[in-house]
Recover the amino acids of this structure.
């Protein structure tokens, strides 16, 4: 007897049929029927009539996600019925608990199934009631024929019926194959390229652009394939490990790319975006490799039999990390086994270096190394302008993060270059500058003395053995302006250059003040200078005058606050020096500690004008045609460095009737004079016969002078290659 459906929790959702043999088959004679008979208030009998070699399936729910289903497969006496569970639009799985009983009657053409099933099995997560206006009558459905419509693919089964539904490779399997291979290419191949271009092979041409392009390809592939996979799940994120990990990668990869873009554009300078991008990049590559192997496991579990499980995930992760570890070992070995530049490169004189620059070579100097940057300018992560704007110059202060090149745009920041950058430098180096000493030397702090205020002091660093190049006096004036590289092994990132300024060695400084004072009191008196202080023998100590900029973890802060005995590594002398000409006008514009670069030249002129030089030294500069005009700027007289020497030289020069020195002092608390473009241009025009112009001050001052002097050079008012931004 047919009972009422009443408020049955059954919603007939799906009917899909297909003949199992051949796509081009007429369905007009295939007759299906489907009836539901209520056996009791909680049990229904589903009656199906299905042609042989066909199947019929219905689902209970309002979508294909989390739906209980019934499937009957007509195969004569071997016919079967299944209780299925549909997770999504993919082929449903056989339910772990079969909540059905069934019987069937088979003849030569059709099979009639009687499937008994509880109305509420407890399986479905989408139960809801359907209110019926009528509570009597029968409910039956028949499909008299089905016509195959072109371009519609329906997944079916064929062959022997087993405990699971076995069919031809379906659309879901194909999708996840494509999904897996594309994302493996993105993170397995392009992810490895990211590592190569950002750490191990930065020196190759276009490495930065390869890094950027591959990064955006990874982003594109991840977004497209991940969103397509989520869409297949009706925009629901499953709670399995691979889906969760993939969702993390999807969200994280956007952040990594955006942080890289911000780093490239020099935005958000107050945040360490370069470090954030670097750390997040390494982290997402590791996460992505785990996502790859979990994806292979998920695919194998869903689509492959136990004996068909793919080992590709394990193979991928083993190969990936094997090569990563091998490259890192090679990288660390190369860093630690760098051969000293003095053993690898030929010596180049300053004369030869300047000639190569005049011939158009794109050369820069880093410590003692001469680097050809022609092929690397446009690959430089900081932009081509940093290298292109410093051709022929010493770039060491930028390399170690002491200075920034652009100071008004707000896009540049100080950047201490990494070991990877050192490998790039090694690949571009063509020679070593003469009169440079590249061997590192361990010293300890033994003495300090206030030079100008509490924040500027002269420190003496002393080693255990005598070292060539380490001297407290250099007779050759071409050593003036060279510098030492100093760092503490407890903070390898804080490396700074401090200029040679031997006249501020406490005993030497006192001697210069003594002869100045004696000359001032009695100009006609014959003076002697302590010969021990102008002895050019190699020593084991060096004086360096250092201002404390009070930067947390900064080297100057460390030197000023550490006790005597603290160990420091020094390397030098290094750099171009001032390249002082025998004759002609030489201008130096300095602010603050920038004056230190030129105080040894002041000391040389003190002894020259007092006739205290030997013949060799005296002939280094013209007695009649050399002139040094020294522009000094300090906040006030209390913070002035070496001013007593400069004013002493000025007195001596005037008293002796010489014309080789002029002093121009600007004290900010006494003068409002601005060193702007107009001022700079006037000084160039007022001093004909200029051979050299030096600028050494804060970054913004340096940049202002650089731009103005370039205009003067292009306008023909300043000789080419005559100015240097120290």
């Amino acid at each position: 007897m047919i009972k009422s459906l009443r408020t049955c929790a059954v919603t007939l959702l799906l009917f899909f049929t297909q003949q199992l043999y051949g796509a081009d088959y007429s369905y007009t004679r295939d007759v299906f029927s489907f009836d539901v008979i209520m056996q009791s208030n909680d049990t229904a009998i589903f009656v199906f009539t299905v042609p042989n070699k066909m199947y019929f399936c219905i689902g209970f729910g309002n979508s294909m996600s989390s739906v209980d289903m019934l499937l009957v497969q007509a195969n004569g006496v071997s016919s079967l019925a299944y209780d299925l569970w549909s997770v999504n639009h993919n082929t449903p799985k056989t339910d772990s608990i079969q909540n059905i009983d069934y019987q069937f009657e088979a003849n030569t053409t059709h099979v009639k199934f009687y499937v008994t099933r509880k109305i509420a099995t407890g399986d479905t997560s989408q139960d809801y009631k359907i209110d019926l206006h009528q509570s009597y009558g029968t409910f039956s459905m028949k499909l008299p024929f089905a016509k195959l419509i072109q371009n519609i693919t329906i997944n079916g089964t064929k062959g022997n019926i087993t405990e699971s539904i076995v069919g031809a490779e379906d659309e879901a399997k194909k999708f996840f194959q494509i999904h897996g291979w594309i994302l493996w290419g993105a993170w397995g191949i392009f992810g490895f390229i990211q590592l190569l271009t950002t750490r191990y092979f930065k020196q190759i041409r276009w490495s930065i652009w390869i890094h950027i392009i591959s990064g955006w390809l990874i982003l594109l592939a991840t977004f497209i394939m991940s969103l397509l996979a989520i869409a297949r799940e009706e925009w629901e994120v499953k709670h399995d490990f691979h889906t969760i990990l993939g969702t993390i990668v999807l969200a994280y990869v956007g952040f990594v790319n955006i942080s890289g873009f911000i780093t490239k554009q020099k935005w958000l300078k107050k945040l360490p975006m370069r470090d954030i991008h670097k750390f997040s990049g390494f982290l997402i590559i590791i996460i992505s490799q785990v996502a790859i192997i979990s994806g292979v496991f998920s695919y194998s579990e869903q689509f492959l039999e136990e004996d068909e499980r793919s080992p590709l995930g394990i193979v991928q992760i083993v190969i990936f990390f094997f090569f990563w570890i091998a490259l890192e070992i090679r990288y660390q070995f190369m860093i630690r086994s760098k051969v000293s530049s003095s053993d690898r490169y030929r010596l180049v004189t300053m004369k030869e270096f300047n000639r190569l620059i005049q011939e158009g070579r794109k050369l820069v100097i880093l410590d003692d190394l001469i680097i050809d940057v022609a092929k690397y300018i446009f690959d430089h992560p900081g932009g081509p302008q940093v290298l292109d704007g410093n051709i022929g110059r010493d770039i060491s202060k930028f390399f170690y993060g002491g200075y920034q090149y652009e100071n008004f745009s707000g896009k540049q920041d100080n950047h201490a270059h990494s070991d990877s950058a050192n490998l790039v430098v090694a690949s571009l180096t063509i020679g070593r500058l003469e009169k440079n000493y590249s061997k590192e030397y361990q010293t300890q702090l033994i003495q300090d003395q206030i030079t100008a205020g509490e924040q500027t002091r002269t420190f003496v660093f002393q080693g255990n053995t005598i070292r060539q190049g380490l001297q407290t006096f250099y007779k050759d004036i071409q050593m003036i302006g060279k510098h030492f590289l100093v760092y503490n092994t407890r903070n390898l990132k804080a490396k700074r250059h401090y200029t040679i300024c031997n006249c501020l060695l406490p005993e030497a400084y006192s001697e210069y003040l003594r002869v100045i004072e004696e000359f001032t009191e009695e100009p006609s008196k014959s003076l002697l200078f302590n010969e021990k202080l102008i002895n050019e023998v190699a020593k084991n100590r060096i004086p360096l005058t250092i201002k404390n900029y009070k930067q947390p973890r900064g080297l100057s802060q460390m030197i000023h606050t550490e006790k005597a005995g603290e160990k420091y590594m020094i390397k030098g002398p290094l750099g171009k020096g001032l390249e002082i000409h025998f004759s002609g006008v030489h201008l130096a514009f300095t602010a603050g500690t920038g004056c230190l670069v030129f105080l040894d030249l002041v000391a040389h002129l003190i002894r020259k004008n007092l006739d205290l030089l030997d013949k060799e030294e005296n002939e280094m500069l013209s007695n009649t045609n050399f002139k040094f005009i020294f522009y000094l700027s300090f906040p006030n007289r209390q913070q002035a460095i070496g001013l007593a020497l400069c004013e002493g030289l000025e007195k001596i020069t005037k008293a002796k009737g010489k014309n080789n020195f002029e002093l121009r002092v600007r004290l900010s608390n006494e003068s409002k004079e601005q060193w702007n473009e107009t001022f700079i241009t006037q000084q160039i025009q007022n001093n004909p016969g200029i051979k050299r112009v030096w600028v050494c001050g804060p970054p913004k001052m340096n940049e202002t002078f650089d731009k103005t002097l370039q205009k003067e050079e292009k306008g023909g008012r300043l000789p080419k290659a005559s100015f240097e931004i120290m």
In short: The longest strand covers residues 440-452. The CA atoms of residues 22 and 158 lie 10 Å apart. Residues 1-29, 148-169 have pLDDT under 50 and may be disordered.
